[in-house]
Amino acid sequence: MAAENPQTTQNTVLVAVFAALIAALGLVPPITVGIIPVPITLQTLGVMLVGALLGPVRGMLSVVVLEVLVLAGLPLLAGGRGGLGVFLGPTGGYLLGWIPAALVIGFLVQHWALRQTRPAARFAAALLSTAVGGIGVIYALGVPWTAVVAGLPLSTSLLGSLVFVPGDLLKAGVATAVALNVHRSYRRLLGGVPAAAR
């Protein structure tokens, strides 16, 4: 029998561990803002982290694993939510947006931010990468989805989503700082970080 590839094993473990991290952040109770039927949760921080730390493929797979488990009925989302209903409800677009968000964040951080030579430029690029994926991509799916499912005008859904922006920018900053520090210490996490990131 052929020996198992250590790299494959490592990738599988990382995907599972970071899927569990996003699930663990769901233990923090959600905050309901009342403008739109979508709560503020800490799990978007986890999505930003997995993309920035693991890269596009493994980051995206971590989110996919979590969402498959949620779809199967496990109460892994903030507030103990799970099942098909959460994807069909007002929050469904935001949840589905986590998948391409991790992909975009991972790609931009790996192929752009970590290649910057100056620390300030590297941080700015990583922060922008995380914000583009973790805010722009998620909102692009979440806002219209909420409008359709909840029967709200698109403008109301968009206005309601603005409540999330300050907190999401803070999450992007935290994810950026954590990711850059981890990449400095573990340069092979993305299969070898360019010299500029060291």
TrEMBL record:
Alphabetically ordered keywords of this record: Cell membrane, Membrane, Transmembrane, Transmembrane helix, Transport
Keyword Cell division: no
Residues spanning the membrane: 12-29, 35-54, 61-80, 92-114, 126-152, 158-180
GO cellular component terms given for this protein: plasma membrane
GO molecular function: biotin transmembrane transporter activity
Main location: membrane
Its membrane topology: Multi-pass membrane protein
Lineage: superkingdom: Bacteria
Subcellular location(s) of the protein: Cell membrane
InterPro entries: BioY
Family note: Belongs to the BioY family.
Protein name: Biotin transporter
